[in-house]
Design brief:
By secondary structure, the chain is of the alpha+beta class. It is built from 2 helices and 4 strands. The strands form 2 sheets. Strands 1-2 form a two-stranded antiparallel sheet. Strands 3-4 form a two-stranded antiparallel ribbon. A hairpin with a 4-residue loop joins strand 3 and strand 4.
Length: 80
């Protein structure tokens, strides 16, 4: 575990959905196989710098996230 966050007075499903939509194009493209050789492609792992994740979490909490987009090439968030 690199970081953990506590959410108060916040719908955690909505919060997670926002993170997935914001970072959706930066999912780690990997196949994982279980002990029965069943393949899965996890959609929970993102290739994003930790400081950017922390900044986006603050923007979600403040409500300002609607004004930003993540640029997968520059690995930064940009104001619209």
């Amino acid at each position: 575990i690199i970081a953990s966050y506590q959410c108060y007075n916040l719908n955690t499903q909505y919060f997670e959905n926002l993170l997935h939509r914001f970072f959706g194009k930066s999912c780690l493209n990997i196949d994982v196989f279980d002990d029965k050789k069943q393949r899965s492609n996890p959609r929970e792992w993102f290739v994003v710098p930790l400081p950017v994740i922390n900044e986006v979490i603050e923007l979600i909490i403040s409500g300002g996230i609607l004004n930003y987009r993540y640029n997968n090439d520059t690995k930064k968030i940009h104001l619209l």
